[in-house]
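User: Can you fold this complex?
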Amino acid sequence: MLLAIDTSAGTAVALVSDDGRMLAERSTPDTRRHAEVIGPFLAEVFDTAALSPSDVTAVAVGIGPGPFTGLRVGIAAARTFALARGVPLLAVPSHDAAALALVESGSVAGRFAIVTDARRREVAVTEYAAALPLPSVLSPASLALRVGWAPEEGVVVHEVHEIPAVPLARVALLRRAAGATPPTPEPLYLRAPDVTLSTPKRVSS
Amino acid sequence: MSRDVLVLGIETSCDETGVGIVRGTELLANVISSSMDEHARFGGVVPEVAARAHLEAIEPVLQQALDTAGVTLDELDAIAVTSGPGLSGALMVGVGAAKALAVALGKPFYAVNHLVGHVGADILRTDATRPAGEGDLELPTIALLVSGGHTSLLHVRDLTSDVELLGETIDDAAGEAFDKVARLLGLPYPGGPHIDRVAADGDPTAVRFPRGLTLPKDLERHRYDFSFSGLKTAVARHVEKLRDSGMPVPVPDIAASFREAVADVLTAKAIAACRDLGVPRLLLGGGVAANARVRALAAERCAEAGVALRIPPLSLCTDNGAMIAALAAQLIAAGHGPSALDVSADSTLPVTTVQA
Ligand SMILES: [Zn+2]
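Assistant: Here's the predicted assembly.
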């Protein structure tokens, strides 16, 4: 059984069976309360499914892109949970979960892009080709200006505001079944820390 | 409780990722990873850089603390974390990690106050780490907690249930002032140790820099509050004046005079609190407790005033996870139940909230 956590947009937590079925799920689109809700969500999925944290055999975590402060909460939680239970941590680019959900629901065909808000008038974009069991990544996540950016011809844009945890777990399961090595569980920041070296200003006129 | 509780504490409020493990009042591990070097070229802590470093460090620091203490996660009785005050994005890394650890292990979760943690650090001292003849921490005590992130004066009547904020900085933290003045004088980051070093050869009476919030009219409203922004500006103005007139800048004298102004105002207000409240005990905490002049002046003035001074060893003065674990162990011993799993990271958590 997998525990899946994503805090790249709102907060999503799910328990998923090894064959990809949802056992319990909690989520909120709230983009400001990751550190608060992560605790109850983790506790509640086990209560709902009447399962124990010791039943978890792997942790899947969304590594973004997404606003950094919230994104780190889920990755920190996933890393310590995996460490505490001694189970593998399977990192998944968060857009892959949204892409799989669209393909599985039959909402897309051909080439499409998952777009999420990256703040500061930018969006994060990942391009895919629809396929099953997994959509294939045409170009990995990158930043683009919200205004003025346009996809290549034939690419359908899907802007999403939530990353669902169940397809996130399924991406991890499918990749593992295919023998792929998961990416390192580092955040996809896409942007250097915003710091400028200021020189001390004169105080006297 | 028939035996002392085994508690793991996580601290990520500023630029140190700390994990400590205690059994009651016994220190088993105190592992710290600092992102100080990454802030050096900016001359001060950059919150986003600190938060990124916490995420990188949390797992290795946690593992190292367990190895050092020689305990397994399953043996722990509780997981504790700093939930505030501090840098919001930095705190959230620790809070997320601690909550997941608590759920994964099925252990109670304690979210505690960073500043009260600094006071709690003192109970981890052993006969080997305190001067001969000094006994256990006695309460009530006044506590002066000074670092790059905070400058606070506390009246601690009970570590787990009765802590009052007497005053705090209304602008920069004292440690921040050290960093900014160091930059002005062309000294490296962090400013405190470098100013201490060059000030050793300087004359502390060379320049009479202002003592913030010590004038009678300020004392009415801000008897125990601090202000270091005016002092920093005064140093800058002084240096500019010298440079403008082509005079050499006597760095040791300016550093010593600046340090004297900070040490003077910190210790004067702390001693005033001890006198006013009839509390003959003062505890120093926070990284600035490492400053040689602050320590010396505190010792001198405490001796004059008949106040017993306590300064935990530096490894427990600077931000660390052991103090967080120690405070949680005290809360458990006093019968306090766990925190709710939905507590937030609160960058302005008041000291009256010992446990969130
Ligand atoms: Zn501190």
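Chain A has a mean pLDDT of 95. Chain A touches chain B at residues 7, 33-40, 42-43, 46, 52-53, 56, 68-70, 72-81, 83-85, 187, 189, 193-195, 197, 200, 202-204 (CB under 8 Å).
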